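fyi for ur records
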Amino acid sequence: MKKLCVLAAVLLLIPLLSYSAEERQIAIFPEYSGIAVQPGETVKMDLVIENKGKSDELVYVRPTSVPEGFRLRLKGGNYLVSGLYVPKEKTKNLSLTIESRKIVPPGVYTFGFEAYTEDEKLTSSCSLSIFVRKEALGLEDIAITTSYPVLKGQTDATYEFSIEVFNKSERDRTINLQALGPEKWEITFKPAYEYGKQISSINIKADESKTITVEVKPPKDAKPGEYPILVRASVGEKKAEAPLLVILTGTYSIEAGTPTGLLSLEAMPGRESRVSLFVKNTGSAPQKNVTFTSFKPENWEVKFEPERIDLLEPGRMKQVDVKIKPAKEALVGDYSVNVSVDGEKANRSVEFRVTVKASTAWIWVGIGIILFVIAGLTALFVWLGRR
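which gave:
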């Protein structure tokens, strides 16, 4: 009987033990387990960390095997990463970059990686095999890389590309720099973090690299569009090239004013006055959804016809009627009304001086009162004279 009870208890515990074992589980694996590359070629892929368990985990990652002549980086976003937080039943990717410090002989090179939890109770390992072919296919021991090969902005901006030039040979070298770009464009090379210097070559030690800034200035009359630039690093007949791209959106500028240049007008209390406002696109890029707003005295009304301009092409000008209506209780005097013209990426404000004058009806009423008073005084003097 006792044996049967023990057996039953064991059978009941088996599912619990199985469930407990499955509560926590992690795995690590590369995006591709085996690839073939040319000598000197940089390998980039994702390293996947998967949390198969029922609880969140803090997972650390480390390389366990790196063949001689190679170096690798594990990055998450813009940061070098050694550990990361992985929610339950989710996966996280790290960016894996493998570079050869020099031209390695053809063959198969194996890289090992291990993932382990903070308490080191869970581990997982994987490997990546890289087959370096015999054929170089024209690749040399100079390389250029850049993280941001495409920059976008206005025509009047200055663009700075950051490139890294590698000397993968076993001796120090002076590497010449050259840029091929559109006509009239200014392209200069500068050492990183050394402002004011321009260079055409740079000394790089064996198996090292240096960061260089490529400064690009478009001409003022450059039209919106895509402009390719080719950066070249060379030593004798050996060279490496990197394509860059500048996308110009044009310049954004708006002008606004009246036909005469005068920014003053007269108005009556409670009555609408009009003034013409001309809006011109003085930039090289179209302006979309041009709207109008006003800053006015309390109880005043300001309206625009049209209320918005859907599209204003470069060099084009459109007329807008501004209707200004002072409050009925507005006193005689000068007031300020500010009109703001807001384009897609540019704005302009115009300030009007509005002189509020008394209504002509009140002027005639005043004249009538004065005449009535004069007539009354005259009659009073005549009556008193007779007495």
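The two ends are 150 Å apart (CA to CA). thats all i got for now
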